[in-house]
Amino acid sequence: VQLVESGGGLVQPGGSLRLSCVASGFPFSSYGMRWYRQAPGKERELVAAVTVAGRSTTYLDSMKGRFTISRDNAKNTVYLQMNSLTTEDTAVYYCSARGTGGYSGLDYWGKGTLVTVSS
Prior knowledge:
Oligomer: single chain
Distance between the termini: 37 Å
């Protein structure tokens, strides 16, 4: 099982980044997908979630209107489009898969990708 995030990097305030997470080794379309983040000295927090078919999404309040989560089940990939970034968005971003139905109770995590927002 692997979840591999990419797309992080250094961006100026007000800029945008698109994170990707490619999954392998498990039935991707049976797993809800989530993005979490952990800023230095802070606890990990849920950023956004998308259901198995991508029809429903959930966001942390501070991300609404700025971040968009989406998935492509044909490519086993989940995305996080981040716009209007601020220094408060600096964190390591993690991709997570949570099983549904017969896969309930199974959770997988990626190793994270660092996003730094700085001028």
